[in-house]
Design brief:
The protein has about 290 residues and is α+β, with helices and mostly antiparallel strands. The protein contains 8 helices and 15 strands. Strand 3 and strand 4 form a beta hairpin. Bound molecules: N-(5'-phosphopyridoxyl)-D-alanine.
């Protein structure tokens, strides 16, 4: 596997960084995950825009222009074998003497990009749906930044794995007169279906603005699927007819059991089936058109 590190393309075994790297010491950096289908990066512009948003959020200058990023990405895709890949972009505030405050502006950031084979979910899982658990969303108030400091997400996601499930659905607890509400998954966005309406949580500082989430809403708009983007209460999550999870690597999956109880009919429902099919068509059309 060939990776990109600070201007060089290298076999992954030869890639090294300083132990003083602020990514290592403080988790001080941001990342992106970009799916590649048939050697073409999916929604590259949108991913690079979100990367810019994350960098702005941590006050780190973007080390590359869009055309430089594009050149790195095109080159890395070409240097790796799989037709379908996922790219992991990782930028940290560089290596400096340990101090929480930012280092001098001359310290160069660390820029790392790797490619892995993209393994979309197995057909059996798509057919059966997956189970999920719920947990209190105990993360910080800037979940819109795709930060590499993912310890809360790691612990929350492990709760799902420990329960033999695929994801943890995160609920912000009730405060004052506001009900508990859905934010997202530990590593995905979550949609609720009720009475034929697709419900999506509003994008705000408490969730990652998913690129797949946007595609799903565009599909809903284009195909006349009734949908609403609004705050979704925890009660609505537990009373859902269907629950969907979305991410760049898992695309769209049906959650058919939540906390051990069936969701709706406990199998992928009509909304999931429709959206899954439209998502696959959308992907094919976009990739063909490029
Ligand atoms: N994560 N919310 C969180 C917390 C995520 O980590 C992800 C994806 C998403 C979905 O975003 P997108 O549709 O742009 O992939 C939402 C990636 C896949 C990861 O960390 O590996």
């Amino acid at each position: 596997m060939t990776i990109y590190l600070n201007g060089q393309y290298l076999p992954i075994e030869q890639a090294t960084i300083s132990v003083l790297d602020r990514g290592f010491i403080f988790g001080d950096g941001v990342y992106e995950v970009i799916p590649v289908y048939s050697r073409r990066a999916f929604r590259l512009e949108e991913h690079l825009q979100r990367l810019q948003h994350s960098l702005d959020g941590i006050r780190l200058a973007n080390p590359h222009s869009v055309s430089e990023w594009t050149a790195i990405i095109v080159e890395l895709i070409a240097r790796n074998a799989p037709e379908d890949q996922y790219l992991y972009l990782h930028i940290t505030r560089g290596a400096a003497k340990r101090d929480h405050a930012f280092p001098a502006p001359k310290v160069p950031p660390t820029v790392f990009v790797m490619s892995n084979p993209l393994l979309t979910p197995a057909p059996e899982l798509l057919a059966s749906g997956v189970c999920a658990v719920t947990a209190e969303d105990n993360r910080w108030l800037r979940c819109d930044i795709k930060a590499i400091s993912l310890l809360p997400n790691v612990l929350l996601r492990q709760m799902a794995v420990d329960a033999g499930c695929a994801e943890t659905v995160l609920i912000r607890p009730a405060v004052a007169c506001e009900n508990a509400f859905l934010t997202e998954g530990a590593a995905s966005n979550i949609f609720v279906v009720k009475n034929g309406t697709l419900l999506a949580p509003m994008k705000d500082n408490l969730m990652l603005p998913g690129i797949t989430y946007d595609v799903i809403l565009e599909i809903a708009e284009a195909h006349g699927i009734v949908h609403q983007v609004r705050k979704i209460t925890a009660a609505e999550v537990f009373a859902a007819d269907e629950l969907l999870l979305t991410s760049s690597t898992r695309e769209v999956m049906a959650i058919t059991h939540l906390d051990g109880k069936p969701v709706g009919a406990a199998k992928p429902g009509p909304m999931y089936n429709k959206i899954y099919q439209l998502y696959q068509e959308f992907k094919r059309d976009v990739m063909r058109a490029k």
